[in-house]
């Protein structure tokens, strides 16, 4: 037998399981907020910029070929900047209690599209340490690149600074709570339909018609206990009143 579900039945299922959906959604929001505010460690971000320019020459204008060469070198510089040759010296100069691999995970090196500017971004639980690491990487790289590649075409464009009201870049509680709200609603609706699908009990005459494929000729009305007690007391009160009048 092919079974179809109407939109009305879907809405009835949602209304019947609304308490469950709301409970799951609230639980997801509360857990997400608690984890974002009290469990996850705030991470701050600081960035510095390097400029890869051509070496000084007697030509009054830039040579396009040399500029293209500098752009191609940027990819090489990005790799060198995160290499042990640079990071070991950064760790020694700042006295960091971490390995090269741990420091590498904190650093992101990206070049601006079609430009000679390289952004060095560092994320750390301490905003001051993030700025110190970013600036030290730029200084060490500028000093060591001449010995590594025998070039001198790197200059520091901007240094990393810590603002007065530095705010963490992650976690983002509002975003996390919003995602938890959406996920909670989706999970709640999914659980509601799953429970409705697994519920094979007979509750209405329509369920009997679907199950037996027979028309329902009649139904026995149900009464609540309070209604039965109220109806049982009503004749007694009437009889007592009639005897008192007589």
TrEMBL record:
Domain called Tyrosine-protein kinase G-rich: residue spans: 145-194
GO MF entries: protein tyrosine kinase activity
Q: Where is the Polysaccharide chain length determinant N-terminal domain?
A: 3-94
List the InterPro entries hit by this protein, alphabetically. Bact_polysacc_biosynth/exp (IPR050445), GNVR (IPR032807), LPS_length_determ_N (IPR003856)
The subcellular localization recorded is: Cell membrane
State the UniProt keywords alphabetically: Cell membrane, Membrane, Transmembrane, Transmembrane helix
Keyword Cytoplasm assigned: no
Report membrane topology.
Answer: Multi-pass membrane protein
Segments passing through the bilayer: 20-44, 174-195
Q: What is one GO cellular-component annotation here? A: plasma membrane
**Predominant subcellular localization, coarse grouping:** membrane
Similarity comment: family membership: Belongs to the CpsC/CapA family.
The name under which this protein is listed is: Lipopolysaccharide biosynthesis protein
The record lists the organism as Lederbergia lenta
The organism that produces this protein has a lineage beginning with: Bacteria, Bacillati, Bacillota, Bacilli, Bacillales
The UniProt gene name for this protein comes to: cap8A_2
